[in-house]
Amino acid sequence: MNDTLPPPDRPTIARALLITWLVTAAWDFLCASALSVFVYNGTFAGLWRGVAATAFGQRMLTAGTAGVLAGMGAHLSIAFTWSAIFIAALAASAGLRRIVARPGGAIAVACVYGPVIWLVMSLGLIPFLTGRPPSFTPRWWVQVFAHIPFVTLPLVWTARRTLLRDPAV
Fold first, then answer.
1. Do residues 117 and 82 make contact, with C-beta atoms less than 8 angstroms apart?
2. Cβ atoms 159, 20 nearer than 8 A
3. In the list 7, 36, 93, 158, which could disulfide-bond 47, CB 3.0-4.6 Å?
4. Do residues 52 and 74 touch, judged by C-beta distance below 8 A?
5. All structural domains of the chain with their residue ranges
6. pLDDT at residue 2 tops 80
């Protein structure tokens, strides 16, 4: 493995961001939908209207297809933001690139980044948007840990594969 792991160039960063964003958004979309429908006995449309209601207000809960599409749009923008933050950190930090280049390091970073994402979202962004403090229910705790396999493992692994130049990665 190349120990220097030079910083990637702009086209490589842009490509890595696009691929990481799409993989992360798709995997999280599928997992969140399955969790909502099969574990929480909710509906697909209800999940995505709920996401829209967080971002755009309670009227989205009764907005039908427009609410579902708004929730999916919010989901895509959130996945893009967290992917961009990670790609930027990985592009800027040789130390982080060295850690993520090792499979165990990539897993460790994902195990930290997943809960960080949920904590920032649930303790900061969601209360800011809704005006309501977080509710520490069992579902809240599921999200803390579910973000590791359903969000950050695919995010970190995809970023690792697309951004690092070492062909062995």
1. yes
2. yes
3. 36
4. yes
5. 10-163
6. no
